[in-house]
Here is the input.
Amino acid sequence: MFRTFGPNEVWFIVSAVQWTLLLSAVAFAGGAIGGLVIALARVSPIAMLRYPALIFIRVFQGTPLLMQLFLVFFGLNILGVGINPWVAAAVALTLHASAYLGEIWRGCIQAVPPGQAEAAWALGLNYRDRMVSVILPQASKISVAPTVGFLVQLIKGTSLASIIGFVELTRAGQIINNATFQPLTVFSLVAALYFILCWPLSMWARHLEARFAVATQR
Here is the structure.
């Protein structure tokens, strides 16, 4: 017997937003650390750093996020490493974010005019000082808009964690739909909540992109 879709069901779905946001925050924070390492390795003059970073990016950009979630969750459990859906989702999304942010930030680092690095070299700055004091500060300004844009995609990507049983926004909607059998109402609410989360960030990313475009033309 199906139950009616009421305030309790609405609250259950809305309360799941916190888990979507928490998973997104953990994956983005971990991806930021991993992405910076990957980006620096990609632009390193040392080939032994560049090629492993390139392979990492190709693997995670060339395979679906869903498969990555499956491999982390089911693969580790098969190998005897017990892992719950929350940890598996966080690990898979962190690796996914590391690859994409690494490539985004690599492009931003290389977008800094070469003359900046040449001038720093002429001043006698070593590689580390050139990156920290000259290149990265300029690259960070370029990277803000695409980074925020990727964050929007990451928030939406957390919905795939429902496949391995992690109860975030999409999984909460599935649970309520199975209990009420009102898919149009349930998933309209889920879609509206994703829109509320992502639309402001999308607008912010566009604003930042337009602002940076104007600044570069001056």
Remarks:
- The mean pLDDT is 90.
